[in-house]
Amino acid sequence: MDINYLVNILLFVFVGWFVYKRVAPVKSLRNLTDEQLRGKLKAPENSTLIDVRETHEYSSGHIHGAINIPLSKLKQSLTEIPTDKELILYCQSGIRSKQAAKILQKQKYKDISHLSGGIASWSGKKIRGNG
């Protein structure tokens, strides 16, 4: 067995592990469909909807009632996030919202859901701007 073959196998394993960690299910994170999220938005006092995309993505179109806390600023913004409500996270495709959920779980947040497939799976109206 030559060294190139071994390096290629190790590289393949590393890339596979990296991809898996990005898309793997997050323990105790509830996945919401578009329809399930619509139901939860009918009682907005029970939850906080957080868009974890960057500010320019948020202003290009977001779900009504969402607050923007980019994943890149999540750890510094924990004081803005209530601990007594369900947190519903979303991003563009669902990957960053899973990462955000992991961060929040480490900070002892318990009641967390995310929009499966992100805003790309949202069939409802999107609000433009920062309002």
TrEMBL record:
Residues 43-131 form the Rhodanese domain. The keyword Ubl conjugation does not apply. Pfam families: Rhodanese. Keywords: Membrane, Transmembrane, Transmembrane helix. The chain crosses the membrane at residues 6-23. InterPro entries: GlpE_sulfurtransferase (IPR050229), Rhodanese-like_dom (IPR001763), Rhodanese-like_dom_sf (IPR036873). Gene3D superfamilies: Rhodanese-like domain (3.40.250.10). PANTHER family: FAD-DEPENDENT OXIDOREDUCTASE, RHODANESE-RELATED SULFURTRANSFERASES. This is Rhodanese-like domain-containing protein. The lineage of its organism: Bacteria, Bacillati, Bacillota, Bacilli, Bacillales.
